[in-house]
Write a structure and sequence with these properties.
254 residues; alpha/beta; Rossmann fold; seven-stranded mixed beta sheet; 12 helices; 7 strands; globular
Length: 254
């Protein structure tokens, strides 16, 4: 990793990302076309049907072309390990972006069915194309919506995709940081987790999810058993981050 890759402030695409924070909140994209450019880059450069090469190609794009706000390679390895420990059959991701996180989930849990909730239709389209190129589109479903929409998306997951009490093995949270705790609570209210279900949360330190982190600290040993993984924010080594891996202690055994 070169100096420009390690220190994101030296990269214009990172600075442009900072300028596009409001745009990300409203549209799910930075606003300079990098997400669509990623799709084209993957199709042009990654071997079709090779999930490993597609992931490596996305990482290369993020380091060498335009900075991306997915979980990235370093934190992705933490996610991979958590998924393998959980050995899930049903996985829910909150925040699809360009499909990178779901690809890592699909690779680490080859027998799982993965559902990814994404607010932006444009991102969903990009992710579906990336998944198709990687050869895993039959195992990943993008549901356009948000958990905080009054129950519509949760109802769709239940009625159209078979979500129900005690069936959800793993949740990966990587979307609107202010919504982490409320969305997890909505999932808990549905009773979808079982004893031993795992919840992995990205970006707990940067940009930060203080309410979610405090909740997990209060619930330690009672409702959840949480490990805080110290790491760096995606695609650089300057800024620290945390990934929380929380095992659910409530509910019934699967």
């Amino acid at each position: 990793m070169g100096l420009r890759q390690r220190i994101p402030l030296l990269r214009w695409s990172f600075l442009r990302l900072a300028l596009g924070v409001r745009n990300i909140s409203s549209t799910g994209q930075v606003g300079d076309g990098r997400e669509a450019a990623l799709r084209d880059y993957v199709v042009a450069n990654a071997r079709q049907g090779d999930i490993d090469d597609v992931l490596a190609t996305i990482d290369r794009f993020a380091y060498e072309e335009s900075f991306l706000i997915n979980v990235g390679d370093q934190k992705g390895a933490i996610l991979d390990a958590a998924v393998r420990r959980a050995d899930p059959r049903l996985v829910l991701e909150l925040g699809t972006y360009c499909g990178y996180g779901a690809l890592r989930l699909a690779r680490a849990a080859p027998s799982a069915r993965i559902y990814s909730v994404e607010l932006a239709e444009a991102n969903a389209d990009i992710a579906r194309d990336v998944w198709a190129h990687a050869g895993v589109a039959d195992r990943i479903t993008c549901v356009v919506g948000t958990i905080g929409d009054g129950g519509r998306t949760l109802d769709a997951l239940a009625t159209e995709h078979g979500f129900g009490p005690g069936l959800l093995d793993l949740v990966f949270i990587d979307h609107d940081k202010a919504a982490y705790l409320a969305d997890l609570q909505s999932i808990l209210d549905r009773g979808w987790l079982h004893r031993g279900s795992v919840v992995v949360a990205d970006n707990v330190k940067l940009p930060g999810t203080p309410k979610y982190r405090e909740y997990m600290r209060r619930q330690q040993g009672t409702l959840f058993d949480t490990v805080e993984h110290k790491t760096h924010a995606e695609y650089q080594s300057l800024f620290a981050d945390l990934v929380l891996e929380s095992e659910y202690l409530g509910g019934q055994k699967p």
